[in-house]
Design goal:
Elements (H helix, E strand, L loop, with lengths): L11 E2 L7 H10 L13 H12 L5 H20 L3 E6 L4 H10 L5 E6 L2 H14 L8 E2 L17 E6 L9 H14 L4 E7 L4 H7 L6 H17 L8 E8 L4 E8 L3 E5 L2 E5 L4 E8 L3 H10 L3 E7 L5 E7 L2
Parallel strand pairs: 1-4, 2-3, 2-5, 3-4, 5-6
Antiparallel strand pairs: 6-13, 7-8, 8-11, 9-10, 12-13
Helix pairs in contact: 2-8, 3-4
Bound molecules: N,N,N-trimethyl-histidine.
N,N,N-trimethyl-histidine binds next to strand 11.
């Protein structure tokens, strides 16, 4: 266990190996099938664009998950029980976390885990003000690695991992199973409260990722903006198109940036050529049926204890337990 750094709040800093933006971009764009990791959407501007997406009429997941949480938080708090240690993977959408913290019965502590240190410290400082009695133990780590969890001073009855926002949807199938197995070890004897987006009418999915105001397109192209600004690249935004569609055989929405002509882009010394119609895969967002997710959860060692959905079955919040 590393030493907490000398600022308030204490931070358990595991100094995660962060590959640089440049090295991941170079790797992704020099693959035969070009791709960029979707985590790079979320710098300050990108996070703001995502928040704008969440406000769109067409983008149902965020508001639907929040509505489920608001309606069921009492029930959820009862199920999680008193003195639980709440561990959040990839904090951020603190509205949902605050709902939970408001309802939990005497939580033993709150452990937000994030790879982005500054953001983590900012959100923790804000939480500490609202919840002065709550022991907050932020951890800076790559959340797929094996790290020790900090131990709060209050006794812990069970550990509960919170993984909202259907972020699990961004993992391909095998990595998803692998990550859920990791979570099962972390919350052994306790549970996992997870937001999972559901399969539905293709047209609803299509609209959610192809909004009429073009905010999602701007969010997608923000990766190009970041490469221009931070890596000195010369992507011409007008020569790339936002292309998002539901792939029904794979059960996922795919987001791509498609080259609208043959072109060459420069990234420092490196030249990257694009053929007309060639795409850069920027995100996958898998959708599940309740049965499919239950099977995935079971293969990772979880039992589905409770599922809450909205009336239209667009989204689900699930409590999974592991013995
Ligand atoms: C935050 C990753 C769940 O996949 O729906 C929104 C991100 N991408 N519009 C999603 C996103 C395009 C979102 N997640």
């Amino acid at each position: 266990m590393p030493k907490p750094i000398e600022s308030s709040p204490r931070l358990y800093d595991f100094e995660p190996q962060q590959k640089t933006f440049l090295s991941e971009v170079l790797q992704g764009l020099q693959d035969a099938r070009k791709e960029l990791p979707s985590k790079y959407f979320y710098d300050d501007v990108g996070s703001q664009l995502f928040e704008q997406i969440c406000e769109l009429d067409e983008y149902y997941p965020t508001r639907t998950e929040l509505a489920i949480m608001q309606e069921r938080v009492g029930e959820i708090a009862t199920l999680l029980g008193p003195n639980c240690l709440l561990i959040e993977y990839g904090s951020g959408s603190s509205t949902k976390t605050r709902l939970l913290l408001d309802a939990l019965h005497d939580p033993a502590g709150y452990v937000p885990i994030d790879i982005a240190k500054e953001q983590l410290l900012r959100s923790v400082a804000a939480l500490a003000e609202t919840y002065p009695g709550l022991e907050v133990l932020p951890v800076c780590a790559d959340y797929t690695s094996n790290f020790e969890l900090p131990v709060p001073s209050k006794p812990v009855l069970r550990r509960v991992v919170y993984f909202p926002g259907s972020t699990i949807g961004n993992f391909d199938r095998e990595p998803a199973r692998h990550f859920l197995r990791h979570l099962a070890r972390v919350c052994q004897g306790g549970g996992l409260l997870i937001g999972v987006d559901l399969k539905k009418d293709f047209n609803i999915l299509h609209r959610a990722y192809n909004d009429s105001q073009g905010v999602t397109a701007q969010f997608n192209k923000h990766l190009l903006v970041r490469m221009n600004e931070e890596l000195g690249a010369d992507f011409e935004l007008k020569h790339f198109g936002h292309y998002a569609f539901y792939n029904p055989t794979q059960g996922r929405v795919e987001m791509h940036l498609v080259s609208l002509r043959n072109q060459t882009v420069h990234l420092g010394e490196v030249e990257i050529t694009f053929k007309l119609g060639e795409s850069v895969w920027t995100e996958s967002s898998y959708k599940y049926t309740l049965a499919e997710f239950a099977q995935l959860a079971a293969s990772a060692g979880f039992t589905v204890e409770q599922v809450w959905t909205d009336a239209r079955q667009l989204f689900s919040v699930q409590y999974l337990t592991v013995r």
